[in-house]
């Protein structure tokens, strides 16, 4: 089928390329002419393993094109995906201005009955609102289908072809059947439901995953006080199929463009409906505190005097395999350390430039792990990149002024660190190798 996808960000681009890969003729439309020009040369604006190969393959197969001209794109397509951003507003609610702008463009561009497929994460009730919004501006019949995405950054290409389910929400059976046909090629179970339920499935799924993460982080904090190793606790818990081992990895909390935004938006949705969603408020607060955990430990180790201390950040991306630093713990950590007068050097295989763009000359970007560790008074493990996991322990002792490693992603082994004579703290085990339990 001929399909148009509006928006070539993480969601739109991966969705468009995947639809082309399963055989549809897809035109991805974006207002950013530079981005479109790059995409036409199979250059992706986002770092996503495997995406450029898929772009090139489908352009060469004649199934994938990129354009800035929505009107031309929709002339021979009756299915238009909306995949534009819904960033968060000051009060935490979703900013729908980009969606409304795109919806307006759809209304002004189409020349036939059209099914609008909303991929963007939108507050419950938005799909129904958008259907009216567009229908009031065009004589053609508008159907709307809510099709939230569940892709994870860094593994989006894998997730789009191997997801657990495709959710389709609609109040129009014909549109639902059309979208079932569109998605047949993925061979992924399709869950059909109403508009509001589909919108809520997205928010509730992300909020639940965030809750799992904040829960295991709180258990980790308690283990530091009463004993127990969070890695063992998490493994033992995860063997219960009702709990499951995924999203049960303690660390310095969640970041990214989704969990922080979607938990706040869901809280606002509840508040706007007159419901006080206490649980999600605790999840959000617990995560905020967890992102600063390493700084707390560092302060207690250096008696709150970090002035002039050289601190190495190992990783700044919000997770491995992405260049994305949105809402990452690293940004919060850097801000706090700078405020304490510390000197910051960062290393990240792909996201360093994005962080440099935020802090400029206030931080140093090291080109190698050796360089970031050189003469450091402490090393903070912030992102569990493979190459950070593979650092040889003697590198810490040979390069650092004070071999002190604070492990925010449970990457290293405390017994091996002890043998190597390195002062080591890890979330959820706690004690520094100086055998001074750190109670904070
Ligand atoms: C998330 C959802 O997983 C995905 O379904 C949705 O479509 C978008 O939001 P994403 O934010 O890309 O995906 O990455 P994810 O792998 O979920 O990690 C989110 C954050 O949680 C990262 O900062 C990661 O470090 C953290 N995390 C994840 C943990 O701290 N512990 C875990 O066990 C898992």
Give the second-level CATH assignment, the architecture of the largest domain.
3-Layer(aba) Sandwich
Question: How is the quaternary structure best described?
Answer: single chain
User: How do the strands line up in the largest sheet?
Assistant: 3-2-1-4-5-6
The radius of gyration computed from the alpha-carbon positions, rounded to a whole number of angstroms, is 24 Å
End-to-end Cα distance, whole Å, is 59 Å
On the 0 to 100 scale, the average pLDDT is 94
* Structure classification: alpha/beta
User: How many individual β-strands?
Assistant: 14
How many DSSP H or I helices?
A: 19
CATH topology title of the largest domain = Rossmann fold
User: Uncertain segments of ≥5 residues (pLDDT<50)?
Assistant: 433-440
**How much helix is in the residues?**
40-55%
List of distinct ligands in this structure: uridine-5'-diphosphate-xylopyranose
- What characteristic shape results from the CA principal axes? globular
The biggest beta sheet is recorded as: 6 strands, parallel
Binding site for substrate: 150-153, 202, 247-251, 255, 319
Catalytic activity: UDP-alpha-D-glucose + 2 NAD(+) + H2O = UDP-alpha-D-glucuronate + 2 NADH + 3 H(+)
Pathway: Nucleotide-sugar biosynthesis; UDP-alpha-D-glucuronate biosynthesis; UDP-alpha-D-glucuronate from UDP-alpha-D-glucose: step 1/1
Pfam families: UDPG_MGDP_dh, UDPG_MGDP_dh_C, UDPG_MGDP_dh_N
